Give the backbone structure.
Amino acid sequence: MKPIVEAKNLNAYFENFHAVKNVSLAVPEKSLVALIGPSGCGKSTFLRCLNRMHEEIPKARVEGEVLLGGSSIYDRKLDPVAVRRSIGMVFQKPNPFPGMSIFENVVVGLKLTGSRDRMDQVAEEALKGAALWEEVKDKLKKPGTSLSGGQQQRLCIARALAMKPPVLLMDEPTSALDPISTAKVEELMISLKKSVTLIVVTHNMQQAARVSDRTAFFLMGELVEYDESSTLFTVPKDAKTEQYITGRFG
Amino acid sequence: MKAMTEVNSVGSARKSFDPIFERGLKFVAILVMSLLILIIFFLYQLAAPAIHEYGWGFMFKSDWNPAKLIFGAYPFIHGTLITSLFALALSVPVSIGTALFLTEIASRQVAAVIGFLVELLAAIPSVVYGLWGLTVLAPRVRVTVQPWLSEHLSFIPGFSGMPYGVGVFSASIVLAIMITPTITSIAREVFRAVPHAQREAALAIGATHSEMIWLSVVRVSWSGVFGAVVLGLGRALGETMAVTMLIGNRNEVANSLFSPAQTMASLIANEYPEATNPLHIGALAYIGLILFGISFIVQGLARRIVNRVANPSGGGA
Ligand SMILES: Nc1ncnc2c1ncn2[C@@H]1O[C@H](COP(=O)(O)OP(=O)(O)O)[C@@H](O)[C@H]1O
Ligand SMILES: [Mg+2]
């Protein structure tokens, strides 16, 4: 399969702290890649380099290359804003816009780009894509923040899907959710990868094993091992990976 | 055994201090409250002759003539409101812009320096503002600003009139400078209270910086900013020294932005030292009560709004 996202010798810094060290990783199109590793190993930082969110932090910088469909997202002529429009992101804590209705939350990105026609239809598709439509179709005018935590997270997924991004990044999207909502979001991830490439940070190895095609194991800013999940979780090549997945540290 | 009793004795000595301490605090709190009530009572007593003479109608009467013992508060209520509101109109855009700049655009170092300078504005004594206004601002208003505005905006009622320099316009400009630190620092707190996750939400859907500021910060901050503005209004209403120096001290309803006028506070500062007749003193005290009432309502309203924004989960307290 051809890669849709490809990081090449990627380094990320917070001022002088070297948080992601020379990571190269290729993500096949319409697959789900899980990023695992102990807390603080640089998973979020790496993920945030993939849609140029990292550089929003004062004094943070990125070196190396990230290709989206073969062309660099760090091209000097490219506006990071344009990059973020084509690579969606979902955060650890659901963050719908307060004071906006469910509908407004879904279409807010479209309004920014000025593509206001067929908004009802796009919103419906996005909510269906996020497996939320049935639950909210009769209360689209209610505030987004009135939903439960799990529904809010799916609303945030719908908000990202409405932009029709080829790639969706998720940073521990279920770690703030209860087990039932977690199961729903996991199910959603599996169905989404038919149409979108997903890169998902997870703190939960079982989750990675359940939903991902490939898994990348990070440790102290380095990519230790990257392989088919079925291989990585059963016959890891690196001793450190084995220690981690058998629960001996992290 | 010995150690035990020692521990116990220390414990009981410390415990017996508790009620004294608590009573002390209660006493101080009651003292402050009594002071407030005493001041109101004192004002009321002083105002009684005027209250009995005029009743509520006092607030709507326009004549003020101490020599003939005719008193009406309307010109001063009008003067207070017009200078304060015009000051707000000047200060609010600047304050909110500054607060947004400090929270959303400036680097931490720049924000610290500018934030400090803005707060310093609040440390300048009122009388110094008054001096600056009289010696620097008012002459320029008279010679340059007012003629220009009159020439170009005279079709708007309120922009014509004799150029005196001192008057509503000059007083409002100085007031605007004086309330800017208040509004800026509270608006800054309101903007800072917006969770980081909200900003990231906007950036992640491809908002530009200004779109992010609108979507994540401004849109959710209306009520807090409103509170900040009302608090600034509260400051402007009661400000005395600088306004007294700059308002022109004319006991008539201002018919133009450039007219000399009088606010409630400046009237009291001007006339109380020379007032001897009980009805005159009463009328001044009555105006003091009215000013106190307006300030009380405005400050109370602002505090409620700002508190609700600062701790939204505070049970609506
Ligand atoms: N804003 C920041 N400023 C400085 N250091 C940071 C910042 N965010 C994260 N770090 C550091 O970078 C490292 C990687 O963090 P992160 O990518 O969030 O880890 P993970 O998501 O794997 O838990 C950690 O050591 C963390 O302390
Ligand atoms: Mg993380």
Observations:
- The pocket of adenosine-5'-diphosphate (ligand 1) is lined by residues A 14, 17, 19, 37, 39-45, 57 (CB under 6 Å).
- Chain B touches chain A through 19 residues (CB under 8 Å).
- The domain at 57-310 of chain B is CATH 1.10.3720.10 (MetI-like fold).
- Chain B is about 75% helix and 0% strand.
